[in-house]
Write a structure and sequence with these properties.
Helices cover 71% and strands 4% of the residues. By secondary structure, it is mostly helical.
Length: 268
């Protein structure tokens, strides 16, 4: 392929097996020949027209996934990092109607961050935070529809973006349940222990108690003998701490656990 056609193919590969003309143009803004180059690639049977996923856009599909992979792998990692971030920004503006917007944007921001990390690029935390926010939103939606395997995958990836010195109780608490319901029980208990231990290490009593409550709720499903009584006793100690801290998230965790205890005792 001549350089212009190869560049167009590479930009399409960043979006994925299916891509859109507007995305290619956004990733190659100086190229005024994107449309005829796409037509040429169709004639050469490297791509095909496809049903668009975005209103007002022309969609294309790689004729074979290996063609997409070859085009993508030809890009240096630094270029991939830049293009993934730019595509995420473009999709935020043009893909508002996509049900999977958080998941897709989160993936591209995550890829950009991972490539930059591999290259040892300076990290101000902004990119990781944006990816984490999108993946968390997608994971919580998956959890709410009981798509637990997807929820665990998305929330684990979001959790991997948490800075080493930070605890995201809401995200990690949800991840514990997603792991439990997806069958990864050992990992769920490890996550609960991790929350409690890391919080205790920095003197965060609220976070420590939230981790302990998560562990108590998990034990009800895994080792139920005596679990209800232990959790009830823990909540008697935790609620005053949460109330004194005026921490809404911790209070939600505490009161939802009180409801679970009542349910365990057949007091629905």
């Amino acid at each position: 392929l001549e350089t212009g056609e190869r560049t167009v193919l590479e930009r399409g590969a960043v979006e994925g097996a299916v891509f859109h003309r507007g995305a290619v143009q956004a990733l190659a803004p100086a190229d005024t020949q994107v449309t005829p180059r796409l037509a040429a690639l169709v004639r050469k049977e490297l791509i095909r027209p496809a049903k668009t996923q975005l209103a007002g856009e022309d969609g294309f599909r790689f004729r074979h996934l290996l063609i997409r992979d070859a085009a993508y792998e030809a890009l240096p990692k630094a270029a991939r990092a830049d293009l993934h971030e730019r595509f995420a920004l473009w999709l935020e503006e043009h893909g508002a109607e996509l049900v999977e917007l958080d998941e897709i944007v989160g993936y591209h921001l995550e890829q950009s961050w991972l490539y930059r990390a591999e290259l040892g690029a300076p990290d101000d935390g902004v990119l990781a935070a944006a990816a984490r926010r999108r993946l968390t939103a997608a994971g919580e939606r998956a959890l709410s529809r009981t798509d637990n395997v997807a929820a665990a995958n998305l929330l684990e990836r979001a959790a991997a973006l948490i800075p080493p010195d930070e605890i995201d109780v809401g995200l990690e608490y949800d991840l514990g349940f997603a792991l439990l319901w997806s069958g990864a029980t050992d990992e769920a208990l490890q996550r609960a222990d991790s929350i409690a231990e890391r919080a205790a290490a920095v003197g965060d009593r609220v976070g420590e108690l939230c981790g302990s409550i998560l562990k108590g709720r998990l034990h009800y499903y895994l080792e139920p003998q005596g679990a209800t009584e232990r959790l009830a006793e823990l909540l008697e100690r935790a609620l005053p701490v949460f109330q004194a801290a005026d921490d809404d998230l911790a209070l939600y965790i505490g009161y939802s656990a009180i409801g679970a205890v009542a349910s365990m005792r057949a007091q629905v």
